[in-house]
Amino acid sequence: MTDILEFFGGIFDTSGWPPRWYCGVWTDFHGWLYIISDFGIFLAYALIPTFIFKFIREKEGIPVSNVFLWFVAFIVLCGFTHLIDAIMFWYPIYRFSALIRFFTMVVSMVTVYKIVQIYPQLMALKTSNEFQAEIEQRKDAEYKMREYAGQLESSVADLEQFAYVASHDLQEPLNTIKSYISMLDENLKGKLGDEEKEFMKYTLESSNRMQVLLQELLSYSRLGKNEDKEWVDLNKAVEEVLNDLKSKVKESGADIYLDTLPELYTSKIEIHLLFQNLLTNALKFKSSQRPLKVSIRSHEREEDYLISVEDNGIGIDPKYQGKIFQIFQRLHNRSDYPGTGVGLSTCKKIVEGNGGKIWFENKDQGVRFIIVWPKNRL
User: Fold this and answer.
1) Would you state the CATH architecture of domain 224-374?
2) Where do the CATH 3.30.565.10 domains begin and end in the chain?
3) Paired residues of 46 in beta bridges
4) How many other CB atoms are found less than 10 A from the CB of residue 72?
5) How many Cα atoms within 13 Å fall on the side-chain side of residue 177?
6) Contact at 8 Å (CB) between 164 and 222?
7) pTM, rounded to two decimals
8) Model confidence pLDDT, tens digit, residues 192-249
9) What CA–CA distance (Å, rounded) separates 237 from 240?
């Protein structure tokens, strides 16, 4: 303990040791070569941390920055050992030199420990060649993705064109069939038996149903092609829909609540069709157990509007979340609830065509359709 106290008490005491010039036989060339080399090494060690700090500052977020700081401390202390070696040619501060060497040893051991800790991370770092290879792979993947997207877009366009042509061109022969059936029914009045009359009735009903289906398919194929967009006051648009459905609203005895609704930048025709389908469903699928209540609400958020159409009807089983928005999908018998199965798929196409989302949530009584509509989608 006495030796330790004596050591730190005379940390800069040079008595007892001669300057290094007087230790051994030094020539001027040999001595100055040693001194200049130590000073040069010290300067190099002093400059290296400058570039390391610059690197850490400019490359924020690198996972090994803590190790760099230990490495900087190690380099600085190594530089000091060389500087002190040069100084001791005139001032033999051997105690201070020993202390600096001890700190250098401690920091170097900690640095080695830190490097061992991050060795897996260092091995995971990619070389420039590996990065270049990854970039090339991503370019190839992006090219293929664009190619597939182009093919998909072309296929969708072909399908939409087919749906349009099929639904449009099939209406003429269907009208002809309906006309001949009607004429046949008129000409054979009083001559047909009960079974033949039933056949005639079913044929005419099927023709009418097919005509409605083709008209809805034609409307569906045209969705998204209307570029005539404008700011639509949703309050007025919904009022117009309710006016069109006035007889159905009266027949159902529905109590309809309208919240203050926003303005949306969209096609007026499509927004009319969207709420016509949603409200028609609410009126159609009412419960016989309670008076029908329908509410349309809106909640403004930072980047979009949350619009809901809610009723207390018979509801929808949650297991049909994915199926219900597919075209021609029906959950009920046609005899119980007439329809074509195109309405909700039309709603989905309209909403998604405007950058939004639509889904439903089942309640204890009824169902809530929720629409997310983005703001200012010009």
Assistant:
1) 2-Layer Sandwich (3.30)
2) 224-374
3) none
4) 19
5) 15
6) yes
7) 0.48
8) 777 777 777 777 766 766 666 666 656 665 666 655 778 989 999 999 888 888 888 8
9) 5
